[in-house]
Amino acid sequence: MIRKYSFKSDSIVLPEPSAMVSSASSGRKICPAKNFVETHKFQGVGENETGNIPLTFIINAGVEFVLFKDFTENHNKTYFQIGSPTLGPEFLDNNLLVRVTTDSSDAPLEYNIPLSQTRAFQVENFSFLAIRFNDEVGLRQAAVEVFIQKTFCVMGPVE
């Protein structure tokens, strides 16, 4: 995990309404100017590689695989990409079902990604990410590549 720290006042200044969002569970989430903005990356490593290097997971058919769960109340903006390496022609009719939950919505967002393709997403107040490999045969496995970059508010020093 790579961590990058900065003061909110040193980062890009956004209009005040974009710094607050409604949340069904906790009212309004705010990142005051005295707080820190921190970025964590969920990524792999590689010799002579830079940028968004994904981690690879093996997922069984028909089973929901939880990749990420946020247990904090911190306001966040998250970028993630999900894909699968190129597979043989026997897999072309299958897909990955991606389920994303945010603090701002009761209903999960669901997306189908065809195998051998990659998709990128950006969400606010990201809280949960799960993937299911939809396979008609039901006995196979799929390799899934995932990269997550989450920027969130961290409480600063109390005066």
Describe this structure in words.
- The chain has one domain (2-154): Jelly Rolls.
- The radius of gyration is 18 Å and the shape is elongated.
- It has strands at residues 2-7, 20-23, 27-30, 36-42, 55-60, 64-69, 76-83, 95-102, 109-114, 118-124, 126-134, 141-154.
- β2 (20-23) and β3 (27-30) form a beta hairpin.
- With 159 residues, the chain is mainly beta.
List keywords for this structure.
6-stranded antiparallel sheet; 4-stranded antiparallel sheet; Jelly Rolls; mainly beta; elongated; disordered N terminus
What's the quick description here?
0% of the residues lie in helices and 53% in strands. The protein is mainly beta and 159 residues long. It has one domain: Jelly Rolls (Sandwich).
Rg to the nearest angstrom?
Answer: 18 Å
Low-pLDDT sequence parts: 1-27
CATH architecture: Sandwich
Amount of helix: under 10%
Number of domains: 1
Q: Write down the CATH topology.
A: Jelly Rolls
> What is the CATH top level name?
Mainly Beta
- The number of helical segments is 0
How would you characterize the largest beta sheet?
A: 6 strands, antiparallel
What is the percentage of strand-forming residues? over 45%
| Class from helix and strand fractions | mainly beta
DSSP, total strands: 12
Cα end-to-end separation: 30 Å
Mean pLDDT: 77
Identify the overall geometry: elongated
**Helix and strand pattern:** EEEEEEEEEEEE
How are the SSEs placed, and which strands pair?
Layout: E1 2-7, E2 20-23, E3 27-30, E4 36-42, E5 55-60, E6 64-69, E7 76-83, E8 95-102, E9 109-114, E10 118-124, E11 126-134, E12 141-154
Antiparallel strand pairs: 1-4, 2-3, 4-12, 5-12, 6-11, 7-10, 7-12, 8-9, 8-11
